[in-house]
Design brief:
Chain lengths: ~55, ~60, ~60, ~55, ~55, ~60
C-alpha cells in the first residue's frame, strides 16, 4: 500500500492545495478526503480493466 | 512477483489515466469519468501493442 | 541510512514545493517565497498524515 | 530496447490520444506511427550529438 | 550531492532555457547562477522545516 | 556498463528535449526541430557543467 499512498498524496496535494496556507483549511480537508476516495475508485477501475484484458 | 508486476502497471496506468480523465474529484466516480478510465487503460494497452509490433517489424527488416 | 531517507524526502519536498512557490528565481529568496516553502512542507506532511490515517481506518473497517 | 519502448509509448500516448475513445481510430493510429518514427529520429540525433560531445 | 546537482540542473534548465540557441547567452548564464542559488536556499529551508517538524 | 550509462543519458536527454522541441510530430524530422534537438543537448550539457563547476567552487570556499 506504500506506493498507493505515496502516489495518492502527490496527486491530491497537487489538486487540493493551491497556495499552501498556515493550516489545512476546511475546504482543503474535504477536497483531500474526496480526492482520496476517487483515487481509490480509479485504482480499482484500472485494476479491473487491466485484469480483464489479460484474460 | 507476477503480482508485483501487475500492481506496478496498475499504479502506472492510474497515474496516467487520472491526469487524462479526472479534472476535479467529485463526491462519486461519475459514469463519464469511469468510462474515460476504462477506455484510457484499453487505448494505452493498444498503443503499447501497436508500438511494440511496429518496432519488432523494423528490427526484423533491419531498418533500425 | 536514516540520514539518507531524510535527504531523499528533502529532495522530494524541494522538487514539489519549488514548483508551487517559485515562479522566476530572483536575486534573493524573498520573504513571500520562503513563507510559501515552509507552509508547503508543513501542508504536504499534513496531507500525508490525513491520507495515511484515513486509509488505516478504512482498512480496519474492511471498507477496502 | 525496453526503456526506449516504454518512454516512446508514454510520450506518444500523451501526444496522440486526447480523450480516449472506444477504439484507436484511424487518425490516432497514424499519429502513433508518425510519433514513433520521430521519437526514434530524435533519439538518434540526441545520441549522435552526445557522442560527438564526449570525443 | 549527486542527486541535488541532477535535480537542480533539471529545474534550472527548464526555467532558464526557453528555446535552446547556439550558445548559453549572457542572460541564460545569469539565470542559471541565480536559479542555482535559490534552489539551494529552497533546499535549506525545506530541510530546516522538515527537521523541526520531526522533533 | 559505460554503454548502459551512455544510453541512460540518451534516454534522459531525449525525454527533456522532445518536450522542448517537438510540438506535433510531422512526417519528417524537419530541419528546425533537428537543430533544436542538437542545441538542446549541447545547452543541457553546458548547464550541467556550469552548475557542477559553480557548486565545486562553493564547496571549496566552504560557502555551503
Amino acid at each position: 500500500a506504500q506506493e498507493l499512498l505515496q502516489r495518492m498524496t502527490d496527486k491530491c496535494f497537487k489538486k487540493c492545495i493551491g497556495k499552501p496556507g498556515s493550516t489545512l483549511d476546511n475546504s482543503e480537508q474535504k477536497c483531500i478526503a474526496m480526492c482520496m476516495d476517487r483515487y481509490m475508485d480509479a485504482w480499482n477501475t484500472v485494476s479491473r480493466t487491466y485484469n480483464s484484458r489479460l484474460q | 512477483q507476477q503480482k508485483a508486476q501487475f500492481q506496478a502497471q496498475v499504479h502506472n496506468f492510474t497515474d496516467i489515466c487520472w491526469d487524462k480523465c479526472v479534472d476535479s474529484p467529485g463526491s462519486k466516480l461519475d459514469y463519464r469519468t469511469e468510462t474515460c478510465l476504462v477506455s484510457c487503460v484499453e487505448r494505452f494497452i493498444d498503443t503499447t501493442l501497436a508500438i511494440t509490433n511496429r518496432f519488432t517489424q523494423m528490427v526484423q527488416k533491419g531498418a533500425h
